[in-house]
């Protein structure tokens, strides 16, 4: 299949390279420079298949940055009259046509795109118009269900994210306690499903599981700092965020639990291990 990394069998080797059995694609050419010397006819080889500039099926053993069907952050290498050419880590760039650009791309900039096969030309293309690929199925998520997210864009209210490669969501600035960047993949948690199928997402694990994990971090930090930290339930939220990448509310719940267990002593702007 075009645009995919796959295992093909060598059918013939000549001075220019090797021809691989490509099934419905017919013979797929692998240049000699990419053919390992020990390989022979009949051997399998892992390759990425694409069409060269003349439209012939061609293979490379170099693993690309993304395959057809993938979302990926790609950089624009050049622009011309038909669109933007983006680097996917192999000798052949992929085209993002102007009608697939949202926003309009600029040379040297990187964009989150989805790779697809153009039906007419069968060439690998890229689209930053992600709306056409998402929200096609109902958003059947439970509150605080864990999902995989890709940071897609920064907005006035937070970060737009792609959820499980199927739906759009947003992480509001008020729920963000660590730095993120476009194209970053990470786990997230569904806060709520809106009527338009879009999702409100948080990055912190909710409930006691999150508090237990934070409690462990706090105890470790205390032990590494002589048994005392200059943070308490009256401390500045930004200071708490800087140290533990969490909200003041979660921090207060965690130190409250440690206090009830008799593990720490509380002060307005400090905590310390018991018996320190």
TrEMBL record:
Pfam families: S1_2 (PF13509), WHD_CvfB (PF17783)
Matches recorded under InterPro entries: CvfB_fam, CvfB_S1_st, CvfB_WH, NA-bd_OB-fold, WH-like_DNA-bd_sf
Organism (species): Pseudoalteromonas fenneropenaei
Gene3D superfamilies: Nucleic acid-binding proteins, Winged helix-like DNA-binding domain superfamily/Winged helix DNA-binding domain
The Conserved virulence factor B first S1 domain, residue ranges: 2-61
Domain of life: Bacteria
Residue ranges constituting the Conserved virulence factor B-like winged helix domain according to the UniProt record: 217-273
Protein name: S1 RNA-binding domain-containing protein
Family affiliation: Belongs to the CvfB family.
């Amino acid at each position: 299949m075009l645009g995919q990394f796959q295992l093909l069998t060598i059918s013939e080797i000549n001075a220019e390279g090797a021809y691989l059995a490509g099934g419905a694609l017919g013979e797929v050419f692998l240049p000699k420079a990419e053919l390992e010397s020990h390989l022979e006819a009949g051997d399998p080889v892992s390759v990425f298949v694409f069409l060269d500039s003349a439209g012939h099926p061609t293979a490379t053993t170099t693993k690309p940055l993304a395959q057809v069907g993938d979302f990926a952050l790609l950089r624009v290498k050049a622009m011309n009259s038909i669109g933007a050419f983006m680097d996917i880590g192999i000798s052949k760039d992929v085209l993002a046509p102007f009608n697939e650009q949202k926003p309009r791309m600029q040379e040297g900039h990187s964009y989150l795109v989805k790779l697809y096969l153009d039906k007419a030309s069968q060439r690998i293309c890229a689209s930053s118009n992600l709306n056409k690929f998402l929200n096609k199925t109902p958003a059947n998520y439970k509150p605080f269900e864990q999902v995989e997210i890709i940071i897609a864009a920064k907005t006035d209210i937070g970060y737009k994210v792609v959820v499980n490669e199927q739906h759009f969501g947003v992480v509001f600035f008020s729920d963000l306690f660590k730095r993120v960047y476009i194209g970053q993949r990470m786990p997230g948690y569904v806060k709520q499903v809106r009527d338009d199928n879009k999702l409100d997402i948080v990055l912190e694990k909710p409930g006691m599981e999150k508090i237990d994990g934070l409690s462990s971090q706090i105890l470790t930090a205390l032990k590494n700092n002589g048994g005392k930290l200059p943070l308490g339930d009256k401390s500045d939220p930004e200071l708490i965020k800087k140290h533990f990448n969490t909200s003041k509310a979660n921090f207060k719940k965690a130190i409250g639990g440690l206090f009830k267990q008799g593990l720490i002593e509380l002060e307005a702007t400090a905590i310390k291990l018991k018996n320190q």
